[in-house]
């Protein structure tokens, strides 16, 4: 009986080792509005992440998804419609670990950045 329990425990342990990482995916949101999320399974070499976009010193854009480990804890700078924005990648490793960050209605990143550009130009 003890051998059967030990064998079952070993099988469960091995099954857990090969399990893929699951994360929340939020295509896009602005101004920390709650986002509709789905659960996705990351590929090998990826971690859960919260991706934040900032423009004019304001935190405006948030996405959640799996990203390649190489992007973790990095920043990118890009320009859209003459507006410079920076993107930071905050990664974590654990089932649905990217749930905590605030993340509205789903929009494409391009549509969101266009809205951001219009809002920033209006404020200038």
Give a description of the structure.
The structure is a single chain. By secondary structure, the chain is α+β, with helices and mostly antiparallel strands. It has a single domain (19-123), classed as CD59. The chain contains two helices and six strands; from the N terminus they run H-E-E-E-E-E-E-H. It has helices spanning 2-17, 109-123, and strands at residues 22-30, 38-41, 46-55, 58-68, 75-80, 83-92. A six-stranded antiparallel beta sheet has the order 2-1-4-3-6-5. A hairpin with a 2-residue loop joins strand 3 and strand 4 (58-68). The longest helix has 16 residues, at 2-17. The chain is elongated and about 50 Å long. The model is unreliable at 4-17 and 102-108 (pLDDT under 50).
Question: What would the principal axes of the Cα set say about the shape?
Answer: elongated
Question: Would you state the CATH class?
Answer: Mainly Beta
Major sheet size, sense and barrel closure: 6 strands, antiparallel
**Uncertain stretches:** 4-17, 102-108
**Which band does the percent of strand residues land in?**
35-45%
User: What is the SS-derived class?
Assistant: alpha+beta
């Amino acid at each position: 009986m003890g051998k059967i329990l030990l064998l079952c425990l070993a099988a469960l342990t091995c099954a857990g080792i090969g399990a893929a990482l699951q994360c929340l995916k939020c295509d896009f949101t602005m101004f920390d509005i709650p986002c509709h999320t789905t659960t996705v399974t990351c590929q090998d070499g990826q971690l859960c992440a919260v991706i934040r976009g900032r423009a004019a010193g304001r935190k405006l854009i948030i996405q959640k998804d799996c990203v390649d480990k190489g992007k973790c804890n990095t920043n990118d700078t890009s320009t859209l419609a003459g507006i410079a924005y920076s993107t930071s990648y905050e990664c974590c490793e654990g089932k649905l670990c990217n749930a905590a960050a605030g993340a509205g209605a789903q929009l494409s990143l391009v549509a969101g950045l266009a809205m951001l550009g219009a809002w920033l130009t209006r404020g200038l």
